[in-house]
Design goal:
The protein is of the alpha+beta class. The chain is built from four helices and three strands; from the N terminus they run αββααβα. A three-stranded mixed beta sheet has the order 1-2-3. The relative contact order is 0.17.
Length: 115
Amino acid sequence: MEKGSGTRQLKVAREIQKDMAEIIRRKGMAAFGGAMVTVSEVRMSPDLSIAKTYVSIFPSDKAQVVMGILRDNVKALRGELGHEVGRQLRIVPEIVFYLDSSLDYVDHIEELLKK
């Protein structure tokens, strides 16, 4: 890996996280069945062609429905992202959504601590 490419990966990941969060926020909760969707992390592939996008969904019982909505609309979301980052990036990365279950983990730990 060439020197400095890890820094670029992180910068691009942060920019995509910010832009994707804004795109999802603009769509509103109604677009996601009333669930709140938060982009918790983006991890870029070394060649910047894939953005693994981790989302937290509240309430968590809507997670599967929301993940389906995100996956069904990934092309449109990528297109909107292209408008946002088109000036900074030559290639708009493929977006792959993953469920970030860390909130469920925190809830689980809190439940265990209450016992």
